Amino acid sequence: MASAGKRRLSISNASSDDAGIITRFTRSVSDSQIVDTTKRAAGDAAVVAKKLLKSTGKAAWIAGTTFLILVVPLIIEMDREQQFNELEIQQQSLLGPPPPAQVQLPK
């Protein structure tokens, strides 16, 4: 039984040594300058992306409201004008051509 207890102790020491190696390696990697530079670059990219998304949203809002205020009424008015012209053409075809204009000569 004493040998089984020693074996357990040596196995637990081996795993703690492995954990120590992994911990030291992880700390050395996370404390490296490359990781710090990468974190800063990722943070800066996130800030730029957020600003770009915000400004794009503002531009889309401005373009959308401008379209609604200026272009939609223009389209509606053009459609009315086209309907009016079609109605005039239809009426002219029903009534026939206008009579020839009589020119009065001066006396």
Task: Explain how this protein is built.
Keywords: Membrane, Mitochondrion, Mitochondrion outer membrane, Protein transport, Receptor, Translocation, Transmembrane, Transmembrane helix, Transport. This is Mitochondrial import receptor subunit TOM9-2. Belongs to the Tom22 family. The chain has 107 residues and is mainly alpha-helical. The protein has a domain of 59 residues. Helix content is 86%, strand content 0%. It has two helices and no strands. The N and C termini lie far apart (147 Å).
- Whole-number mean pLDDT: 81
CA gyration radius, whole angstroms: 42 Å
Count all strands and give the number. Answer: 0
Biggest beta sheet summary: none
List low-pLDDT spans.
5-14
Give, in order, the helices and strands.
HH
Q: What portion of residues is helical?
A: over 70%
- End-to-end C-alpha gap: 147 Å
Helix count equals 2
Oligomer: single chain
Would you summarize the structure shown here?
Helix content is 86%, strand content 0%.
Keywords:
single chain, 107 residues, mainly alpha, membrane, protein transport, translocation
Please write out the topology:
Elements lengths: L1 H29 L2 H63 L12
